[in-house]
Amino acid sequence: MFSIAIPHDFLSEAPDEASKIRKLGYLARAAAIFLTETVVIYHYGTPLREEIDLAKTVLEYLVTPPYLRRKVFKLDRRLRLAGLLPPLKIPSHTVPPEPAIGEVREGVVERWDGYYSLVYIGAGKYTKVPKPYPVGTRLMVKIEAPAGRPDTYRASVYRGPPPTYWGFRVEVRPLEELTKGFDSVILTGREGRSICEVKPKVGKRTLVVFGGPRKGLYEIYREAGLEPPGEMVNFVPNQGVESIRTEEAVFIVLSVLRYLRC
Length: 262
Known about the structure:
- The chain is α/β, with parallel strands linked by helices.
- It has helices at 17-33, 49-63, 69-72, 217-223, 246-261; strands at 2-7, 38-43, 104-112, 117-122, 125-129, 138-146, 152-157, 169-174, 184-194, 206-209, 232-234.
- Strand 4 (117-122) and strand 5 (125-129) form a beta hairpin.
- Helix 1 (17-33) crosses helix 2 (49-63) and helix 1 (17-33) packs parallel to helix 5.
């Protein structure tokens, strides 16, 4: 899987709040389409904390199954324009109203009685798992059998990897720690070598790093006094526009990388 990294000032040129929300929606769609594992928001210099918090909150809201959002997210001004966001419709979001035996589904603990946790799994349905978990805990559960009530099922906590693509995680990291845990890094920018001349190295865990609306990656790393952690690649040589927006670049770059892995 690929992971992507965007800078903390990703939203800085959006003229208003609605534009910021739409940009995050486009970014999340690109990440989901290409099965992105992690979206990293990296910061350098003076971090734009308000922008970082907005981006992290909105992206986490979008990747949460719709049937859980009211349970997980309380009233939050940062989400007041969430109606502008496009649906992701990844497998974990498109569950049927009636749970099926053997199905894996995400839920949130509503209460517990000392023996069982009652986990809400959408459409007015619940599962009982045989261990008390703190209220509000998000769990992946595997449906095992009816529990004697039409709205409740017996289940176990599912510990394995998701059965299908479950969405991306969202992390915030300083620039110095951006590449920690990844075995290959691809830097993107028009200053790099043409994709027609170089084949990027793709590892088991590959991080694709994008520059910001005001600074490219070479400038970001130079001002931070750091060496770029990989080769810069220009994925759109001879581009027909003055600049490519970050959310557009994510679609382009991940499309090319997906083709190269075919």
